[in-house]
Design goal:
elongated, alpha+beta, homodimer, Molybdopterin biosynthesis moeA protein, domain 3, Molybdopterin biosynthesis moea protein, domain 2, Molybdenum Cofactor Biosythetic Enzyme, Chain A, 393 residues
């Protein structure tokens, strides 16, 4: 049994990206991982322009009436230079004439007559948007490795990236194992339970930005497991099995993995739930044997598989940003040999409450959970009010 | 000019859902809005079962040696009742025999001989998973109105919802206006700028869970605007235009809206950026005239259009949960007649920093933003360390 931190480092150390990035249409790039830096081909603003309607002049001339030499509309060009004692009437967005170093807002001025204007304000501000103050040619606006959101789509559109380069989505094979499983459309009888793991992993894979391939329920037979696992390893960059990894008579997933040539790096992690999590590699393929209990499988996918998928795509942020919040009630546990992973609910953004949770089969507990907190090995209690790091779901 | 809170209430008061919900395959339901309660058709656990390997007995018999009357494996049924002074050897997950009210863990017992066992622990716990303690037939596990995440997919699979009922996605027509716009694949010349609003709104619409229809750049002509807007209103539940809503000569979007029979509810909101935001309705169609400045359009879509889309889908959570974090540096502004909407960056989950932001054309500022904070009317300063509500992007 190894510590979670070790397991996590081991998984990430085995991630080798072999897929080449691909170009997609801008609108297809939402939620993909950006695989190139977004560099500006323009200056914004493209010229020095006025931020207000007013009078462009020299800051040193404010105490004298200024002669208005021309009017510059938005979209037109100045024809004169601003000399000492003169100014140009100017509209918001219009180019600043040579010689001017500020614009007096119209509300801070008074016309002396048709030809002269006086400053009536307290202090003069520049009121000029400098050429390229938002962005300059050659500036990197977005670094590669981010997950593309709507705001990045806007920036890529503004900078002409109509076919951005994005990471190719890794394929993730999903193999729930167990003779007790029936598909969701079947009413379970006797010792049967519905296959929730397969569907959950497909959804988690999609949410992680990868492409799921669902192989159906694999029966508890060595031959069947061998055959399907071999096929899944050949067809995907990542393979996740659930079930068959504990100590029972039918738990031969690690054995089959080895028979297929998979090097097993660990088969037990000091976490609760999720202890019998197994991880191996074959060439650059990553194979995860997750526990059959749905909550264990869910949490270990989030904590170990998702960061691996993100790293495969060159994503810089492997895990969601933790939110630091106080605990809304005391947390207690009797034993602390393993790191506990506790589903929690966020209460109005200001505190977190562990959700009622009967153990690793209690998938219904996750319906109310907004996040997970990790309670370290050796810690048996966290008091109400103590700050915890919540990993959002 | 109305306050943001009024504008928000007005928009939501006009939302009428006319689309019927639809059934989709379970795996297609990820990120859709659930339109039915998820009710259990099973008890989990389906019977009273042991939580440990040990001996099922009566709590009142702990101080005497107990006679072992049978062994109950997982998957097999008890054949005897536990009488005073007796117990049954039992495996984790096996059904509890009648008469027993606790299970002594094997590690807290000692075999007296082949037939008798003694309790050696300090205090006895029940160690029984009660029938239906995770969920019972008829329990509502998930209430309708949530956005379906992977954990909900797992629960729906477990409860047999292989074709859940989800809200139909509203269609959102997207019409960027302005003769200065060129599509992203064109290098802008002179006064041209690339159309970022159209792409941004398509991406925001997708991220909000609706179906975007992009109508292309609409030129600054009353006839063109009239024609495209009429078509978009006919074909969508929501229409968003950008540009043409200020006071310039070519800003006739509100006029065209009225000519088409759209009732305008407001055309100016006390927010910065985003003041010239216009909202109208025609029957149950919602029409938003958003500002042409990209940051204004982005923020007003997030704050006004997205909650309307979510309400159209019957989603209970109209806005993302705010995160309460301290400000990492002083915030100051000179004027406070409008509510300021300030893009901020979250620093390692523990504080927020306003991003460098030159105003409503500065779309590049959003590339580094993780959220938005609202500074109320009348507030000119927030000191470093004060707690603010961050709306995540």
């Amino acid at each position: 049994m190894i510590r979670f931190e070790e397991a996590y480092a081991l998984v990430l150390s085995r991630v080798v990206t072999i897929q080449k990035p691909e170009r997609v249409l801008l609108l297809e790039s939402l939620h993909r991982v950006l695989a190139e830096d977004i560099v500006s081909d323009i200056n914004m603003p493209p010229f020095r322009k006025s931020a207000v309607d007013g009078f462009a002049c020299r800051m040193s001339d404010l105490r004298m009436p200024l002669k208005i030499v021309e009017t510059i509309a938005a979209g037109s060009l100045p024809t004169m230079q601003v000399e000492p004692g003169t100014c140009a009437k100017i509209m918001t967005g219009a180019p600043i004439p040579l010689g001017a170093d500020c614009v007096l807002p119209v509300e801070d001025t008074r016309l002396a007559d048709d030809l002269y204007v006086e400053f009536t304000g307290m202090e003069a501000k520049k009121n000029i948007c400098e050429l390229g103050e938002d962005i300059r040619i050659g500036d990197v606006s977005i670094n590669k490795g981010i997950i593309i959101g709507p705001q990045h789509i806007a920036i890529m559109a503004a900078l002409g990236y109509h076919q951005p380069l994005v990471a190719t989505q890794p394929r993730v094979g999903i193999l729930p194992t167990g003779d007790e499983l029936v598909e969701p459309n079947i009413k379970p009888l006797g010792g049967q339970i519905r296959n929730s793991n397969g569907y959950q992993l497909v959804a988690q894979t999609k949410a992680a930005g990868a492409l799921p391939s669902y192989y159906g329920i694999v029966s508890d037979s060595k031959d069947a497991t061998y055959e399907v696992l071999a096929k899944a390893i050949a067809e995907n960059e990542v393979v996740t099995l659930t079930g068959g990894v504990s100590m029972g008579d039918y738990d031969y997933v690690p054995e089959i993995m080895e028979k297929l040539g998979v090097t097993i790096h660990f088969s037990s992690v000091a976490v609760q739930p999720g202890k019998p999590t197994t991880f191996g590699t074959l060439d650059n393929k990553l194979v995860f044997g997750l526990p059959g209990n749905p909550v264990s499988a869910f949490i270990q996918f989030e904590l170990l598989v998702k960061p691996a998928i993100r790293k495969l795509m060159g994503c810089k942020q492997l895990n969601p940003t933790a939110i630091r919040l106080p605990l809304a009630e005391d947390y207690r546990r009797n034993r602390a040999e393993r790191m506990a992973l506790v589903p929690v609910k966020i209460i109005a953004g200001s505190a977190v409450l562990p959700v009622e949770f009967h153990g690793s089969a209690h998938i219904f507990a996750l319906g109310n959970a907004d996040g997970i907190i990790a309670v370290p090995i050796g810690t048996t209690k966290i008091d109400k009010g103590e700050i915890v790091d919540v990993r959002p779901l």
